[in-house]
Amino acid sequence: MEAERAWSYAMQLKQEANTEPRKRFHLLARLRKAAKHGEQLEKLCESPRVDAKTKLEAQAYTAYLNGMVQFELQEWKSAMEAFNKCKTIYEKLASAFTEEQAVLYHQRVEEISPNIRYCAYNIGDQNAINDLMQMRLSAGGGGGMMAEKLEALITQTRAKQAAVMSEVEWRGRTVPVKIDKARIFLLGLADNEAAIIQADNEETKERLYESLLAECRDTIQAVREELRTDVKQRERAAEGADSGKVSNLQYLHSYLTYIKLWTVVRRNESMAHALQAKLKEPQTDENKRGPRPQDLIRLYDIILQVQRSHILNAFLYILGFEVVVLSLAELSSLQGLEEDHTFQKEVALKTLVYKAYRCFYIAQSYVLVKKWSEALVLYERVLKYTREVQSKAKSLNNSLKDLPDVQELIAEVNAEKYSLQAAAILDTEDVAEVPQQQQIKDTTPLSDRLDNFRIDPSLLSKQPNLVQFPPDFQPIPCKPLFFDLALNHVAFPPLDDKVEQKGKGGITGYFRGFFGFGS
Length: 519
Prior knowledge:
mainly alpha, Hyaluronidase domain-like, 3 domains, 19 helices, 2 strands, 66% helix
């Protein structure tokens, strides 16, 4: 516990040392303390009461902690020896136990391997850099401390290679590359694309695409800043505006922008392929929401709406798919490519391909709600787009190699058309067989229509309409209210003779009444 506590504190200090370099000294102290506790643990495990497995695990644990200390001190040879010792012990333990127990040991071996290759590269093994790059691109490399050092190593290696790179060729024009960040990015572009192709799962592909896009954005920002500071370039651009030829730096900016836009398109296309595969899989859990054609429609919307604001995206989405053609104008409007007719035709061809796929999934969404005529019209529109693509692709060589397979889409549309026609006929026959009175939608609960037979699929659902709840109000007699209306019309007899006349008789009458006389 003491060793783990010291090691975890060192990892926390490692993160904080990025902004506070002085914490690196505290980091080394905590790592040394963790290694010291590991050595004490190894000595305790030398007791005869400890089994062989625990002794070996303690030795591997101590070797790993010592290797981390030497690794941080950049003592590459000592660190490599400690890591190799740890790796050997874990491999022996994995071979000695069952497959379930060996999984943990193999996992530890995989975590240590990047550290060993990194040490080997720093010792002088140049072949180790290829393994490290492959591990970083395909699986992210080691975690924490190792990941940061691996990123720095790859950047340093590309910087050395970039020193000999002076120019790049794109669409028949060669431009010099003088910005170091652009050189490093262009050198690693091929490796990144190869790693994306070789990725095992969609999650890894998504992570690699995001990493590539982030690096591309940083490179474009560096070129843009160089453009702002280059006053002479602005003057040359103003002078050469009539000729239509842009400067080399502006052309390089257009090339990097094209890479970014096309990478976004390929990333969204990869997500669309993953959704297509899930869409074809049977749904086992009815309560769980699965993918729908609407999800794919939105993805192809994004492909056609590259680099647009959110407000404009929403506006174009409301207007319909015929308007989103304008969104791919980002590619065709790149500076230096306005007069490149071949490039403009390629962009138009790509737009048609993605419009065809988007239209196909709109038709699929109409099929789900049994709107057969609308779906059939949209399928015909898909075939129209594909015919245009095939006719235009004949004049462009290798123009469809990076695009989805149009021929496969045509075959799928033809199959869907036949299925749609059959489903429409069957749906019409089913409606004709059901009596008209049974087709009327009635919300009367079952308890109120027990004498009338009617096919009601809702009775088998989770919310059957059995009784009226809450029940309707029933009229009941209320408590009567009595009003004496005749009282206002009754004439009472005069009572003047009964009322005593006050104020008559004076004092004599008072005494007479007091003593009882005259009563």
